[in-house]
Amino acid sequence: MTEQTTIAQSDQQKSEQSASDIAKPKQPRQLVRFTFYKLDPQWQLLPAEQRQQGKQELLSIFEEYEQGPLMRSYSLYGLRSDCDFMLWQVSYSIDALQGMSSKIRRSVMGPYLRETHAFLSMTKRSIYIGKNARGAQHDPRLVITPKDKKYLFIYPFVKTRAWYALSIQERKRMMDEHIRLGLTFPSVFLNTTYSYGLDDQEFVVAFETDEVSDFLDLVQQLRETEASRYTLRDTPMFTCVAQPLHEILEALGA
Amino acid sequence: MTEQTTIAQSDQQKSEQSASDIAKPKQPRQLVRFTFYKLDPQWQLLPAEQRQQGKQELLSIFEEYEQGPLMRSYSLYGLRSDCDFMLWQVSYSIDALQGMSSKIRRSVMGPYLRETHAFLSMTKRSIYIGKNARGAQHDPRLVITPKDKKYLFIYPFVKTRAWYALSIQERKRMMDEHIRLGLTFPSVFLNTTYSYGLDDQEFVVAFETDEVSDFLDLVQQLRETEASRYTLRDTPMFTCVAQPLHEILEALGA
Amino acid sequence: MTEQTTIAQSDQQKSEQSASDIAKPKQPRQLVRFTFYKLDPQWQLLPAEQRQQGKQELLSIFEEYEQGPLMRSYSLYGLRSDCDFMLWQVSYSIDALQGMSSKIRRSVMGPYLRETHAFLSMTKRSIYIGKNARGAQHDPRLVITPKDKKYLFIYPFVKTRAWYALSIQERKRMMDEHIRLGLTFPSVFLNTTYSYGLDDQEFVVAFETDEVSDFLDLVQQLRETEASRYTLRDTPMFTCVAQPLHEILEALGA
Amino acid sequence: MTEQTTIAQSDQQKSEQSASDIAKPKQPRQLVRFTFYKLDPQWQLLPAEQRQQGKQELLSIFEEYEQGPLMRSYSLYGLRSDCDFMLWQVSYSIDALQGMSSKIRRSVMGPYLRETHAFLSMTKRSIYIGKNARGAQHDPRLVITPKDKKYLFIYPFVKTRAWYALSIQERKRMMDEHIRLGLTFPSVFLNTTYSYGLDDQEFVVAFETDEVSDFLDLVQQLRETEASRYTLRDTPMFTCVAQPLHEILEALGA
Amino acid sequence: MTEQTTIAQSDQQKSEQSASDIAKPKQPRQLVRFTFYKLDPQWQLLPAEQRQQGKQELLSIFEEYEQGPLMRSYSLYGLRSDCDFMLWQVSYSIDALQGMSSKIRRSVMGPYLRETHAFLSMTKRSIYIGKNARGAQHDPRLVITPKDKKYLFIYPFVKTRAWYALSIQERKRMMDEHIRLGLTFPSVFLNTTYSYGLDDQEFVVAFETDEVSDFLDLVQQLRETEASRYTLRDTPMFTCVAQPLHEILEALGA
Questions:
Q1: CA of E147, closest CA in chain D: separation in Å?
Q2: Crossing angle for the helix pair A212-222 and A168-183, nearest 10 degrees?
Q3: Is the pLDDT assigned to residue D3 strictly greater than 90?
Q4: DSSP H helices in D107-197
Q5: Are the Cβ atoms of C183 and D7 closer than 8 angstroms?
Q6: What is the pTM of this model?
Q7: Any residues with CB less than 8 A from the CB of B114 and at least 6 apart, and which?
Q8: Nearest CA distance, E127 vs chain D (angstrom)
Q9: Among candidates D234, C232, D228, which has minimal Cα distance to E199?
Q10: What ipTM describes this predicted complex?
């Protein structure tokens, strides 16, 4: 970061810079977007033919981007009022995220699809776990690999600044407790992505499971961990159900 | 919870896992949704015939889901500005919640019914009361059984993280005080359901009574309990009146 | 309050229940609703005849409910942007509150009148003042009796939980200071009603006076009382002017 | 303030009442309203003739109220997104504030002018400065006298309750520091008005200057004063540019 | 700052005034506006010819203001839901900011372009860095000079009042740590502008880089600095992509 001024670099700065270099892996990191859509009820009042054309067009765009690293559709109608469905897109370039958005915007349904929430994030190696894996050429945490479970639970996450004032050892100790508790719920799988500076949250966490009650019980138990006291914000929370996009559109009366 | 990494389980973890297994009862838990609707005033400007058809359709959908574990209608017009009525639905599957929502969406009234609030939750055994009942085959707290009183008072509820940092004994002591006070209002009945991770609150509490003033007095007295100091959020608060759906639609000029 | 479980009542609980019984007076308590309306500007674009009919209908509904315990109209146009006028209704039954709302909804103006704010509350004896009056058959504080002054100032009110953790003696001492200060403004009259559990606030306070500056000065001085430190929320604040409904509708160009 | 009860006045109360009487000056205090308008873009799509008529009507209403104690127009388009212009009106009666609002509402442009923000306040003698002037017949601080500078900066202001718990001497000491710092920016002029109980803020502060950067530098330096630590809220902040109303309407494409 | 009163200036005040004079440089400071636009989907339903004319008109206005000190366009569609694109305008006069806004408002697209966010600020010399440069005739920090990187990350920024209560030495020490860390990310360039009193934030920070992940990593590491604990608000955060305006309009289906 260079401000509009010149400051000589000390040796200490150079060593920090080196540490920073090490943290920048050669393996590319993925960009992730969770986009929540609400269909304007005016759409339902349009002629059937126009709506049929619009749905086909949207499905084609979806299929095109299924060729990318990841594209999944989830329904939220009947579960959360401010959105009808969510598209989970992963890419190695911002162009792909913007490209899909542009194509949807320009499609027949475009003017009737509201993005009511969206979270932008990236994959990143955790500073708390798996240090021994750092030397490896390929780190699986830099690649989103869904388990394709029935349910996906998503929320944006911000920690208090008091958390960041703790030593890394203290934080690691608390994260270990958090992870140990998580392991007692083997049916729940976690994807953590990072949003620092990119969007209004610090993390986007996405949990996959086939059992709603397991996830509820896990979150309740996590409240008692020490790390939980450093949560500043963890809402809104989204209960998403894996469903093919054409079924979702059918269910919405689109 | 498994992150994209491998961590060996210690003995301690296995014993925690066992405890977790015990907490997962064989008896199925119910899913609950409180959905608050506001009718778009544009509906009233449509032709009478179309409106009559729309009302019949909505009543048929409601009757269909009355076959499920629970379906009740409550009015809020004249009591709360941001909603007209509420449907309280209980089910053993998310499909039923989504199914009813889908049918309403696709009905004639669908484009004119706004979901202005909604709370998703599940039944669960309390960790504070009735431990002696845990051995039983059937736990009545996992099944919502309304008392069918005239009034239902609902609010979402979030506790401070300081609450969860207390020992379970401390929390139980405070909950006992809370429960004892509640017992002095025998005309008020409480249903507590759990939303951890599923929605923006931790609990949805729903009180039934025939006497509005009894509930008001109870809530005022509960403010003085020690547990009350650990409330982070308990709004919005909804005063709901049990009323058949066809009467509600009539009153709204639908 | 009975949860879905059975707990034996101790002697202590029974004595608390007796105390609670004493607090439930035979004299009925009143229900109160302050409803703030904003007229959709689209109304002004309708034909004059339809608008004339709509105004007459609204005035008739208002007159009908003037037969009840209390019904007053106040204007806010030119003073507060999010509402045009307010109706203050008092009743002994929720049916009357819902009935008036239903009639307005079904009237010609109904689809154009937005309820932008509303507060639901009840009368109740204060736990801080007038204990000596408790033995009396009739308590004037359970009946709203406006002084019919030119101005009405309303705000919803929530106290911090720290307030409720104080002893009743401590709180009474602070309320006495509060009341003494209030008495130095004899031109200002206060109506306090209670919303615990019924709506998003704990109290709705409504001050009547003929002198705007007296009320402003009183509120400024009240900031310095000890009780004031326990205020969590006291907004939005509404400056209302007593005005017949037909004059208000005229002024709005309805 | 008289609640619905009777409390005997002690001698102490009577002496407080006398102090209060002294604080009520014979000289009338002014009512002030800052109203921020956003023009609905639909207006621009209306026929030119209708728009011309609407603009003339609005200008006539403005001129009529320019006869009162104060009426000024300021533009905010291009500076703040949620409003296009602001009218600063001062009056000795609420009727004049409501009258102008009513006339605008009933005019051709009325249905297209949204009041997106508004602040209601009154003039009042400061309890911190100028005590020696209290004996005078006429107090200039009770009369708004703009300096007619190019820029006006406005924000609503709420102090923490901790401020009011300080002794008047402590607060005066801090206000003196605040005032001394202000005097080092002689190009900036301050109007403070009071909103306690009348609106959602405690004060509305309005600064006039010809130099934007002077005001920015002043506010930055004021952050370091001790009084600044007792600020609870000082947003939204409005940068307003003095401009004749007809020029503003022209610039908006009205 | 002169209130409506007269206070004699002490010697101390005069010396502070002199200090203030020194802080007012002869070199003019720039005004900056970041305006975020959302295109109303209704635009897409208009005839192609009208839309073509509207796009040409908007591009002409943009080109006209490119003659000024700075004018850049960035896209946000597909990255942030509440805006489609952002215009970054720098000027030496408020007239230019208002002029461009007025021209857009009056253009064919005007009624369909919503300003969903906007930040107003000015350039200013930092009180923490580069004191040695103050004697120079020209200070580069008073002139925005973009590096024209692919990405621009923007957020409004407010510090806690506790920050301003620290001594300038303490704050400088923390800012030095902040700056040293920033220097370890040489691919990231920072523009800081000031909004005290002009808008709802204290600063607008804008970071340029070609590497999204570098910026994310920098922001994560900055969380651990001591200065970070004094952040009151740093949202919303905007990820912007440099893109010519005509390409943006094309992508939006305008």
A1: 25
A2: 150
A3: no
A4: 161-165, 168-183
A5: yes
A6: 0.93
A7: B37, B38, B39, B40
A8: 11
A9: D234
A10: 0.90
